[in-house]
Amino acid sequence: MSKKYYTNERGLQIIIALLKAHGIKKIIASPGATNLTFVASIQQDPFFEIYSSVDERSAAYMACGMAAESGEPVVITCTGATSSRNYMPGLTEAFYRKLPVIALTANQGVQNIGHLIAQNIDRRQTPRDIVKMSVEVPVVKDDADAWLCNVNVNKALLELTHHGGGPVHINFSTTYSRDFSVKELPPVRVINRITLKDNFPEISVQGNIGIFVGSHRKFTPVEVQAIDKFCEIHNAVVFCDHTSGYYGKYRVQYALVGAQSAPNVTKELDLLIHIGEISGDYYGLNISPKEVWRVSEDGEVKDFFKKMRYIFEMPEEEFFARYSKGEKQDSTYLAKCQSEYQRIYDMIPELPFGNIWVAKQISKELPANSVLHLGILNTLRSWNFFQVTDTVDTYCNVGGFGIDGIDSTVLGASLCNSNKLFFCVLGDLAFFYDLNAIANRHVHNNLRIMLINNGRGTEFTNFNHPGHAFGEAADLYIAAAGHYGHKSHTLVRHYAEDLGFKYLSASNKEEFLSVYSEYISPEEQPHPILFEIFTDSKDESDALEMIHNLEKAPKTIKQAVKEVAIDLLGENTVKKIRKLI
Fold first, then answer.
1. Which among 358, 353, 349, 360 is positioned nearest to 536, based on CA atoms?
2. pLDDT value at residue 511
3. First to last CA, the chain
4. In sequence order, which residues have a C-beta less than 8 Å from that of residue 343 and are 6 or more positions away?
């Protein structure tokens, strides 16, 4: 019989490698076929300290005693069927005593649950008081599955000691592979949690360092000072969008650069510090970090960039203070990022009339100390290409990322401070979805709404959206065109004026330029304002495509030769030559 090594099932290789990387070696194994690939793999590895128990109920209690005595995590593993059910009494004990026990159960795949297939127990839901966390590990078929496996196992193993600790459950799927020929485990990415009482890792990189801020409440002056000090010491920058809440010295609004198809050295980072929550700035997220450290008081593993190495469970101010000791450096990376933004901004040609053009005209002209609320997707993206002054607070409902509630959100905000101007820019579907909000009797004269009315969900007709491939057919059900008056020039006007709004409108650049100053005037107006702008979806799409291609990727020699050949011989002749070749 040939010597056996590790299973060739990639998911189990990742589990085993992460157990080793986290220093977890004590395992109590119960007999069975479904967990055989795991047990057979570890029994030939001298790193592990393995014990046998035929009775799963006894195994779980053995793990409690072992974990309490040694202070180390203990793995218990069993087959499918009712075996795992017998872990419940011991896991209940571990839960209430906060003992680090890992229940590693096996299954044949969730697709078999509920179809009268023997030995397929549904473990997708667990009682609240037997484990702190339960994760699924699928059969790994590609890199996306491998990432999910890595993150889920790291999450579970970190939870063993999180907030006092306790038991966790890892439910893995197996193919019953009989191939045990793998001699070395693959490299795995270990995620560690750092708290204020732990030793902090060193920042030893010499290249680009950045901070990415997702949606975030407005930073306090003390927090801004801590971030700025960190950037000063590490020659770092702060990547932001209009929901980030940071307006310090090192702010970089990156969407315009990130949108370009050409490579850009400023996108490459050796280390990225990730703070804040969800960001809707898809282009601004187009950066490429080698390693990510996330800082959040919730301590949760949220691996957006798929490069997380540490999660720092602490206030952001504490984190930046810890890493702000040293000599001040020249802000070369900041200068480079700012220069790139300006260089690409200067390439912007005359754009068609639409959301992007409007944003370019007035983003810098909004009154000081005002507040701007943006609709999701097309509006947020359009405005993220451009900067506002640092005294304007900007927000967007990126938490749920839906079109509902945008009118209501800015209304609620405007009621908090009648001395501030509150602006809102949103599309027609979002506006009408929440139409009742502007009829609220509490609406004050500090509210100013800009309605970009293109008669459809223009997002679904943009050149780079899957809906674009359907042409006019997309209007039927994908882009929901034709609702709400077919871009009527009187519907919103009558409604708004009857509610006491001052109504403005524009259908082209000349009309816009003749009236927009009233919309952004810092002077108090006797009425709230509704500014309706009628645009065309094709113009919106063309403008986005122009922005996207301000700086195209360099052509390959093959592409260049092809273009020259077409110029000299004509496209049809070139096609005939290619067929002959």
1. 353
2. 98
3. 54
4. none
Give the H/E segment covering residue 525: none
pTM of the model: 0.90
At CA 227, angle to CA 223 and CA 229, rounded to 5?
Answer: 115
Going by C-alpha positions, the residue among 276, 296, 285, 272 that lies closest to residue 214 is: 276
> Rounded to 10 degrees, what is the CA torsion of 148, 150, 155, 160?
140
How high is the pLDDT of residue 566? 60
The per-residue DSSP string of 166-195 comes to: --EEEEEE--------B-SPPP----EEE-
> For position 514, what pLDDT does the model report?
97
The tokens for 151 are 């993150």
The tokens of 383 are what? 């405005």
- Give residue-wise pLDDT tens across range 500-512: 999 999 999 999 9
Range list of β-strands (E), 138-275: 168-173, 192-194, 209-213, 236-240, 251-253, 268-269, 271-275
Q: Give the Cα separation of 114 and 112 in Å (integer).
A: 6
What residues pair up with 423 in beta bridges, in sequence order?
A: 372, 448
In order of 184, 354, 453, 495, 511, the CA distances from 491 in angstroms are: 70, 20, 12, 6, 19
Q: Is the pLDDT of residue 577 over 80?
A: no
C-alpha 159/C-alpha 149 separation (Å) is 15
Cα(541)–Cα(358) distance, rounded to whole angstroms?
14
What is the identity of the amino acid at 215? Answer: S
